[in-house]
């Protein structure tokens, strides 16, 4: 089981909702803005970079490598900068052979990747679901949980499983949060079904993340519901 991290939902800046692709310079600007606006004092402490932070191939030792064009200073230096601001840095990987943008996924590299993230000072991992070879998420997500626990560092583990295999029924024993739906174009009847199911599930210390597109696609809402036993 994943180690307990905190009682509050992680809030801050998530690249996916605005830029989609992360950049080092934007991460720095966002970190500065969270502090200068006082949002950090309200709990907005996470700055989470998303897909495409890594190069398209692992190095000769099988390690993930930051893309030198978008993260020229590397992730460790960026994490140090973010931490100096009193913030936390999040990173992205995938429970499939590739990420959604065809960067290397983490299956069969869970221990190496978790150790690498911990050595960089990463505080949060979004673990996506692309190119999963139709292998059950119940088999693909626990290995990263074990790998993160083995590092000894507290890393918030967010399962971005898209809600395809009822994660609310099992993900609380694997991660700190889980995604309950696909990101875009949720129909009203589907949304109603998901909301009803969420109301009937309680999990101590667990967070369910619900994504939906509202107002005819004009903006995307990120609704975070924390359930308590």
Task: Give a written overview of the molecule.
The protein has 229 residues and is an alpha/beta fold. It is 27% helix and 20% strand. It is built from 6 helices and 8 strands, in the order E-H-E-H-E-H-E-H-H-E-E-H-E-E. It has helices at 24-36, 74-84, 110-120, 137-140, 142-151, 188-199, and strands at 11-14, 44-48, 88-94, 124-128, 156-159, 177-179, 206-214, 219-227. Strand 7 (206-214) and strand 8 (219-227) form a beta hairpin.
List the uncertain runs: 210-229
**Oligomer kind:** single chain
How many angstroms separate the termini?
17 Å
Outline = globular
Proportion of strand residues: 15-25%
Count of helix runs: 6
Based on CA atoms alone, the radius of gyration comes out at 17 Å
Main structural class: alpha/beta
H-E order = EHEHEHEHHEEHEE
Largest beta sheet, briefly? 8 strands, mixed
Mean pLDDT: 82
């Amino acid at each position: 089981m994943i180690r307990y991290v905190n009682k509050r939902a992680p809030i801050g800046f998530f690249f996916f909702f605005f830029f989609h692709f992360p950049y080092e310079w934007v991460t720095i600007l966002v970190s500065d803005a969270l502090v200068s606006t006082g949002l950090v004092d309200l709990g907005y402490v996470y700055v989470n970079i998303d897909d495409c932070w890594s190069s398209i191939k692992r190095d000769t030792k099988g390690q993930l490598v930051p893309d030198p064009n978008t993260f020229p200073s590397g992730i460790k230096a960026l994490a140090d900068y973010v931490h100096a601001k009193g913030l936390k840095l999040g990173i992205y990987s995938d429970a499939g052979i590739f990420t959604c943008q065809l960067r290397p996924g983490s299956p069969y590299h869970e221990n190496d990747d978790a150790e690498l993230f911990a050595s960089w000072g990463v505080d949060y991992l979004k673990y996506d679901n692309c190119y999963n070879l139709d292998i059950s998420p119940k088999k693909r997500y626990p290995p990263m949980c074990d790998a993160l626990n083995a590092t000894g560092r507290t890393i918030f583990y967010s399962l971005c499983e898209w809600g395809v295999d009822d994660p609310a029924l099992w993900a609380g024993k694997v991660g700190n949060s889980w995604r309950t739906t696909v990101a875009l174009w949720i129909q009203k009847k589907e949304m109603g079904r998901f909301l009803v199911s969420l109301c009937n599930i309680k999990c101590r210390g667990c967070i369910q993340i619900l994504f939906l597109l509202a107002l005819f696609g004009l903006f995307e809402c990120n609704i975070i519901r924390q359930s308590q036993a």
